[in-house]
Amino acid sequence: MTTRTLLSPAALARPRGKAVYWTVFTGVVVLFALAFLFPVYWMVTGAMKSPDEIAQTPPTIIPKHWHLSGYTDAWDLMQLPEHLWNTVVQAAGAWAFQLVLCTAAAYALSKLKPAFGKLILGGILATLMVPAQALVVPKYLTVADLPLIHTSLLNDPLGIWLPAVANAFNLYLLKRFFDQLPRDVMEAAEIDGAGKLRILWSIVLPMSRPVLGVVSIFALVAVWQDFLWPLMVFSDTDKQPISVALVQLSQNIQLTVLIAAMVIASIPMVAMFLVFQRHIIAGISAGSTKG
Amino acid sequence: MTRTATRSPVEPTTVRQVEAPPPVGGRGRRRLLDQARAYAFLIGGLICFALFSWYPAIRAVVISFQKYTPGSSPEWVGTDNFTQVWHDPEFTAAWRNTLVFTLLALLIGFAIPFVLALVLNELRHWKAFFRVVVYLPVMIPPVVTALLWKWFYDPGAGLANETLRFLHLPTSNWSNGTDTALISLVIVATWANLGGTVLIYLAALQSIPGELYEAAELDGASLLQRVRYVTIPQTRFVILMLMLLQIIATMQVFTEPFVITGGGPESATVTVLYLIYKYAFLYNDFGGACALSVMLLVLLGAFSAVYLRLTRSGEDDL
């Protein structure tokens, strides 16, 4: 990227410009380190301090003695494996349901011209105007007693999976991507006798890898980070995801153990971010300029 | 099923007509089959939207006019829920807190990422590092962020006061003080969310044509004037969009007050969504909860409508 920005390259090349640039650069590095990395460092090392050391003022920047017992205690005492597993099941299921049902629906709306398709799309887009959180209570009542079949999805991962499908943003993202795919390839396949499912599976999906990746990440992150909805759905402690369990257990557990549990709860998403950072950052940046 | 049943008596004639072009009835049958196929793809998503988006929206309005407790049959009470919620002393506090929170989040939480993005766009080194680090807090689960800051704000050995002591500044009550609690939560929300704003705004900055800056500089525009007359007008649309998105998001704040302050001290951080949660799960008053939801819905719906209007018109410009 050599496009010109606020400052001209000529101004930056001058000795004074260079001095100012490197001062600002160092300032930003220090600021970022203090503002964003230091809190994370404080959390990771805080969990390794002894209970006495963590309550001490002034605090120690580096733990005097490194204890791993905070992490092992958190793992055992707070039943982290169980809650992490619950979260994985909830996130993976929501991802799978969303990918299958949203993709199929977006494909139908984009390519199969269903009757009332415009109306349905309008209804889906209208839900973008109704912020999800404002509807949690009636949604909770619906999930607690599904209309017609009178079944409760409370304390059931389906209570996370099915509502996750009603994600207008992801569906619209998929639909718009499918709209832009070249028609002739699909028409050629149809002439060769390929069915609709075959076209979706062998032509549309392979061409849609980038958007499927973005939707997958959005779907996983949304469930992993959510708090209010799982708090309502899972009153049963054994079935709670890690976010809800952390808050419930935070009242009566030793500080170092709690902090260790917080670190463990953050690892999966942070690790995923570090692995896919290029794609995620590109996705966010592209999403902005293309609406 | 019913449609095919009504159609079957016509079938014999259509079969005969297939030989003769044009196959009128055959085409009709094919279209029906196409429709059935299209709906087979659509139905799963459609049911989920109907059950978990459309139906709850209608139900919120219906229940807001009912006395509703799960298990017993609902009772129509007119606008009682609204008047009752209106007279709740926490109602005013919740709306005031939510609006102040939104406003502060807009002032602090928007100015900081705006300036950060402007500065980052000028830096020619370590670009990937800055982008990763600024987005890192977004990836930490909000519950962890809230618990982390609750610990920082601890009046005893919390990092916030330790930093102030280190700098020889007077310490603060942070989230435990009536006047400082709300702003403390705004700081948390800003820390946690500014990464997204920075990245989106950075992308917008990169789409500004360099010639505009060059021309401005030739005309003798200073650095600040270039920001004022080139950068801001060129990214006006993205700025507006980000602002509205942030307003919509912060009006629904729940996790931070729930985890860090529990709405306290003295209702200083009760938000509208928190009050909705309290009505439903503490008072078991779902009618009141839905009345509050409807109020929030109308307000946020208006903001969202403006947002969608803007994104649409922005697309037309491109």
Give a brief rundown of this model.
The complex is a heterodimer of chains A (291) and B (318). In chain A, 72% of the residues lie in helices and 0% in strands.
Protein described:
The complex is a heterodimer of chains A (291) and B (318). Chain A is flat. The mean pLDDT of chain A is 89. Chain A folds into 2 domains: 9-69, no CATH class; 79-252, MetI-like (MetI-like fold, Orthogonal Bundle), CATH 1.10.3720.10. In chain A, helix 5 (80-112) crosses helix 9 (168-180). The longest helix of chain A has 35 residues, at 255-289. Chain A is an all-alpha fold and 291 residues long. In chain A, 72% of the residues lie in helices and 0% in strands. With 318 residues, chain B is mainly α. Chain B folds into 2 domains: 2-63, no CATH class; 82-317, Orthogonal Bundle (MetI-like fold), CATH 1.10.3720. Chain B is built from 15 helices and 2 strands. Chain B has a two-stranded antiparallel ribbon with strand order 1-2. In chain B, strand 1 (66-67) and strand 2 form a beta hairpin. The longest helix of chain B has 40 residues, at 24-63. Chain B is globular and about 70 Å long. Residues 1-23 of chain B have low confidence and may be disordered. At the A-B interface, helix 2, helix 5, helix 6, helix 7 and helix 8 of A face helix 3, helix 5, helix 6, helix 7 and helix 8 of B.
Q: How many domains in all of chain A?
A: 2
Average of per-residue pLDDT values of chain A: 89
What is the C-level CATH assignment of the largest domain in chain B? Mainly Alpha
CATH topology of the largest domain in chain B: MetI-like fold
Summarize the helix and strand pattern of chain B as letters.
Answer: HHHEEHHHHHHHHHHHH
- Helix-residue proportion of chain B: over 70%
Any idea what the CATH superfamily of the largest domain in chain A is called? MetI-like
- Indicate the overall shape of chain A: flat
Quote the average pLDDT of chain B. Answer: 86
SSE arrangement of chain A, N to C: HHHHHHHHHHHHHHH
Name the structural class of chain A: mainly alpha
| Overall 3D shape of chain B | globular
